[in-house]
């Protein structure tokens, strides 16, 4: 049993006082005292129920500063009740009830709050009798008898740092019930978030300028605080269209549509790396069969790699050890009208590469992958083995730069260790977590949620220019 909060001294309130609701991320709000009301009321809009029916939560947004609707603070809290409340003009409304801590003059105690839209009211909050405990006396002719707070706090960098973690509603775009998807759900729910897996191909979109929407199984999808794309290579085009729709709505997407599209197209991906002066194996591309000889020469001759532009998990990647073998493979791919590129074979890598997992602009883990016996490919899906490895400062830097070049907040950057430094082999926008978590023993999905929670916190509001 927890002890009841102690009250060090009595407080006197006027008819209006400055208070803080730190648990909701509201460090300053001016509240009207109303002894005629039992329960306090907070201005809220976009009120939406989420979470399991056994433990429902509500999320909502608050404009804490009257007349300053460009500042919105997103909040969430468990629902403790739903009550019918009759306003002073006699209108009855069914409202969600939450509980949070009220803070005044260094003292704090829990209060119940109903959520309602008070946009037309002068005060964004009303304090009722339940919040006015025995240690508070009221002087109805006075105003602001307690320390005056300041709305400037919403414009400061401290606003983001002090914002509390809140329960989020998160969508995982995935068609697969695999380790990564299950871990994303389990780890998110363990943190109190509601995580829903959505089959990307079952989404459909209403595209218009005023109210763009995403629908799923006959219903409009709710607002999500964040979307984690796990888009398979076979549905890249449609999957990125769905992500663009989430971006249009204003949802935070861990990886954006442009970065996923660029990383999936191997030709475009290498052009992005080249534009940012990021080291990679010498690569060449041509369309005409007359250019085969020159194409082979551009990458230093055989042995070389021939790689389909749409290849994934090591499939569609061929090692041609001689010039004749290279010509045969290139001729076969052209006969299938397949798009491909050729690449210098980094022999000294000896069938090994390094997977660096980058989250939020930092390398959070790295593993070395070695191909199965007799296989130059190091992909774990092709029988490769993984082990933890230490990476150099240069390797760490190039991995971060590569993820940044594509605008990816989460990426698996594959490096080859060559005689003249690390070379980026591929940037994966939907990296798997099973192999690298097993190899390193780290809770890497937890690191991803740290980044999502940080991004979901309110940003300081821009200051309004004073009228001349």
TrEMBL record:
| Keyword Phosphoprotein on entry | no
The entry's cellular-component GO terms read: cytoplasm
Q: Which InterPro entries match?
A: Asp_endopeptidase (IPR008503), ATP-grasp (IPR011761), ATP-grasp_RimK-type (IPR013651), ATP_grasp_subdomain_1 (IPR013815), Peptidase_aspartic_dom_sf (IPR021109), Rimk_N (IPR041107), Rp_bS6_RimK/Lys_biosynth_LsyX (IPR004666)
The family database entries (SUPFAM superfamilies) matched by this protein are listed as: Acid proteases (SSF50630), Glutathione synthetase ATP-binding domain-like (SSF56059)
The residue range of the signal peptide is none
| Entry annotated with the keyword ATP-binding | yes
Q: Which keywords belong to this entry?
A: ATP-binding, Ligase, Magnesium, Manganese, Metal-binding, Nucleotide-binding, Protein biosynthesis
What cofactor(s) does the depicted protein rely on? Mn(2+); Mg(2+)
MF terms in GO: ATP binding; metal ion binding; ribosomal S6-glutamic acid ligase activity
Report the superkingdom from the record: Bacteria
Q: Ranges for the ATP-grasp domain?
A: 270-453
Report any one BP term from Gene Ontology: SOS response
The UniProt entry's sequence similarity note says: In the C-terminal section; belongs to the RimK family.
PANTHER family annotated for this entry?
Answer: RIBOSOMAL PROTEIN BS6--L-GLUTAMATE LIGASE, RIBOSOMAL PROTEIN S6 MODIFICATION PROTEIN
Q: Which NCBIfam families match?
A: PRK10446.1 (NF007764), rimK_fam (TIGR00768)
The protein depicted here goes by the name: Probable alpha-L-glutamate ligase
